[in-house]
Amino acid sequence: MPTRTSSELRPANRVAYDYAVIRIVPRPELGEFINAGVILHCTERKFLGARIEFSERRLTYLWPDADIGQLRENVEVIPRICAAATDAGPIAQLSARERFHWLTAPRSSSIQMSPVHCGICESPEVALNRLFVKLAFGGDS
């Protein structure tokens, strides 16, 4: 029996993507976090995007002395890096693949990413929005 390639196993209009959940980790030593957004990369459609929103109320509950302004600033640069914005620093000038891997690399800071997961979709933009609502949207920020 001949082996099929991944492109032969999926419908022609669907593409593979990778994604990770963006997390704010107030105290890395405890492992507590709140989901703050989603980052999604689709090589085939040349798409790299992120959506961000987090609950300041939930964050303050976990970390009463959090510098919300600084955390928001640190998280909100992620979509600008994805978009290769000129004001987002040197990382934003890397290729989309390199930016995705840099952003999703494990770190012990207060902004972390979940493990990278994969999926298949027709539209990376629609998949990003669907994942954002399902996995990250705090709704009460």
Briefly summarize what is shown.
By secondary structure, the chain is α+β, with helices and mostly antiparallel strands. The protein has helices at residues 6-9, 56-62, 68-82, 96-104, 124-136; strands at residues 15-24, 34-42, 47-52, 111-113, 117-121.
Write the layout of secondary structure elements.
Blueprint (H helix, E strand, L loop, with lengths): L5 H4 L5 E10 L9 E9 L4 E6 L3 H7 L5 H15 L13 H9 L6 E3 L3 E5 L2 H13 L5
Antiparallel strand pairs: 1-2, 1-4, 1-5, 2-3
Give an overview in words.
Helix content is 34%, strand content 23%. The N and C termini lie far apart (54 Å). The model has no long low-confidence stretch (mean pLDDT 89). It has helices at residues 6-9, 56-62, 68-82, 96-104, 124-136; strands at 15-24, 34-42, 47-52, 111-113, 117-121. The protein has 141 residues and is α+β, with helices and mostly antiparallel strands. Strands 1, 2, 3, 4 and 5 form a five-stranded antiparallel beta sheet that branches. It contains five helices and five strands; from the N terminus they run αβββαααββα. A hairpin with a 4-residue loop joins strand 2 and strand 3 (47-52). It has one domain.
The structural domain count equals 1
Number of strands: 5
Kindly estimate the percentage of residues that lie in beta strands according to DSSP.
15-25%
**Helix coverage percent of residues?**
25-40%
Structural Rg: 16 Å
Report the total helices. 5
Low-confidence stretches: none
| Biggest sheet features | 5 strands, antiparallel
General shape: globular
Mean pLDDT: 89
The chain-level structural class is alpha+beta
The helix/strand order is HEEEHHHEEH
- Report how far apart the termini are: 54 Å
